[in-house]
Specification:
Number of helices: 4
Number of strands: 16
Structural class: mainly beta
Low-confidence stretches: 1-44, 125-160
Helix content: under 10%
Distance between the termini: 117 Å
Shape: globular
Mean pLDDT: 78
Strand content: 15-25%
Radius of gyration: 32 Å
Amino acid sequence: MRPLVLAMLMTVVACPGGGDNPADAGASIDASRPDLGPPPFDAGFAGTLGSLCSQTADCLDHRQRCYVGTANGSFPRCTVDCNDLEDCIDFAQGASISLDDTDCARPANSSGSRRFCVQSPGRGGGTEPDAGVSDGGEGLDAAGDVGPLDAGPQPDLGPGQVPGTYCTRADHCRGQRCLAGETGDPRCAASCEQAVDCVDWATIAQLDMDRVGCLEHETGRYCGEVRRVPSVGWNADLVTRLHGVSGRVRIDEGPALTFRRFHYDGSAHGLDVVLALSLGDPEIAAAEGRLIVVKGRMTCRIQGCPDDHPCLPNGNCNGAQFTVPMPEGVQFQDFDHVTVFDRAAGANGTAFATGEFQPSQP
């Protein structure tokens, strides 16, 4: 009997009842690697301000350009022009980079003189450009494997790729040609026989067809940006670059230039400021000696303003309107821009504001 009872007790202890469950050990532990959390924000190729791009057509806003900085580690990004670093706050936020890694400078892939917001790693002591794998070991990327840190999506082959996009050299254009038209920055070219062959090129370049022509080059005919010759009735809106200078300029009979809603404080800004015309960018025209001065002596000295200053007595033009005759001998085909220009600033002068003449709207 005792052996039977002992055997039954051993059975009860060894086998849990049919309704009992083993103790819950909780969620199983993944011993493979820790959770690194969501990946860091990447602007990607979203087409918005600050996002990566490979051509201007990648940028959704027609006012933006696909430009890259000159610093090591800079990527092409959708950007806008700027006067100083404060104008680049939205760009830096869109690119998810700090202002220390941002600069307001002439882009590496632009032949113009305008400044744009560009990525500039380490400019202000911020994040330094990645120098590769350190001597102490390799980084751990988001997948958990050992190797160089993942730098995110990389731009494809530079700023210019298809016909109509900006370029600085031929190899930006996938074996095509990087050519400048009569005006504007160089673009990847497309061959043509007549202007109608350039419709697709114009679409990528974001230019109206009246700005596009089939131009003769040494190796053939290619689509390019052409100048529009202004005439009486055309207007130019002065785009502010420095010191809040702005206004609208109209070509009137005479011929003469009528300035309306003109803002410029001649007693506070500039040393040798003039009103001038130029064919193309006025700063380039000034460097080449092609700036056409329409009205000089817009700056007021301590002793007062010139007698012919349009904003007497103190030289502060605050929404002023006045008319200036065009210099004798100047033809409409000699210019397409108007500018408020300080000839004493910088090596060749600096534009305070510039506008391109456009046909009057019907």
